[in-house]
Amino acid sequence: MATHSTWLDQFPGNLLWSNACLMTKAMAPYGGSVALGEIDEVCQRLMDQQHDPDAWRREWCAMGARLERVAARAAAEGREHTAGNYYLRAGMYYFTGERFVPPGPQKREIGRKALELHHAGLLRRYPNMEKVEVPYEGATLPALFLKAPHASGPVPTVVVFDGMDNCKEMSVLFNGLEFAARGWNTLAIDGPGQGESLRLRELYARHDYEVAGTAAFDYVAQRPEVDAERVFVMGYSFGGYYAARVAAFEPRYRGGIAFAALHWDLAAWQREIKRRHEQEPSNTAQSSFHFRWIMGCESADEAIKKAEKFSLADVASRITMPFLIVHADVDRTVPVASAYKLHEAIASPKKHLKIFTAEDGTRYHVQADNRQVAVDYIADWIASNP
Question: At what angle do helices 105-125 and 55-76 cross, to 10 degrees?
């Protein structure tokens, strides 16, 4: 690893913080949701505080609070667009600050604040966006529906599930804005174990994600803006497993996309993460508690046991719809071998695998170093499967 700060390795020798920082930097091109100068300011303050377990929360939330005050003044003065921009950035920084706070009241409150500010910004900046609730097992899943502007009738729609540590407020921007520009709707949804569903509703991850996928399809199919014959399901990072699972069991989708293929054996991956945490905690992109939190488990061992059901080994062969996998060749989070293995196992004659290399301009997990490259590739693929 480099001995000095770089774009990817903001904190040399500290993959945990560097990866988290990159996830925030990756939002820079999308809707003013972060500012690189503000990120750099926070990181400069954090550079000498890496041994303080609370420094990450303190510095990111301080930046969020500073911008929230500016947003509130702008809103009070009727400058709604300006307020929206500041609220968006404040929400993203609070969400980043929450990342390494252990589960409990403080984490819940920071998560609630991040969502409140995100929504205050999104709904001001994007009048074609609405907060919606998707019926799900007697409850609902929170989602954001971004309508294609100027559409005169039903149009294609993409249902987007998050990764392990992301949220719909992020994906509606880095996916939804591009899809809207191409004349499509987006339903960005926090499924079980994700975003708002996890933080405020205590809905935990489940291996049979087709239940959430079916709920999402049923919701969008009844909307007049949606062409129910052209609905695609996509998941990124951990959502790569979810999208494949949904595609295997919910045939009404027109196609599926794994924006990074998740591990074939989730339990084995988490056992390795646990081992690395015991030896060198900063040498992994995942905190010691995050996985057990999304699984709703008290211990890592209990979460790993639950993860044994999260496998595509006997599932991928059921995928017969068009399916796209995009992955980075030197992905440090999910080895590229997982993408090849998933592609080989899928039964669909219209399966496609794209491995991004340095020549493409991106080599990081979920293309966080150059995400537009992947989003464009995915959108072009969707357009080729009308």
Answer: 40
**Per CATH, which fold does 8-125 belong to?**
de novo design (two linked rop proteins) (1.20.1440)
Banded model confidence at residue 1, pLDDT cuts 50, 70, 90 = very low
- Identify the sign of the CA torsion 21, 113, 144, 178: negative
Name beta bridge partners: 131: 144
Contact between 333 and 365 under an 8 Å Cβ cutoff? The reply is yes
Q: For the chain, which residues make up each domain, given as ranges?
A: 8-125, 128-264+311-386
Name the phi and psi angles at 353, rounded to 5.
Answer: -120, 125
CATH annotation of 128-264+311-386: 3.40.50.1820
Hey, is 132 helix, strand or coil? Answer: strand
Q: What is the DSSP string of 344-355?
A: HH---TTEEEEE
Helix (H) or strand (E) holding 156: strand 155-161
Summarize pLDDT for 296-322 with one digit per residue, the tens: 999 999 999 999 999 999 999 999 999
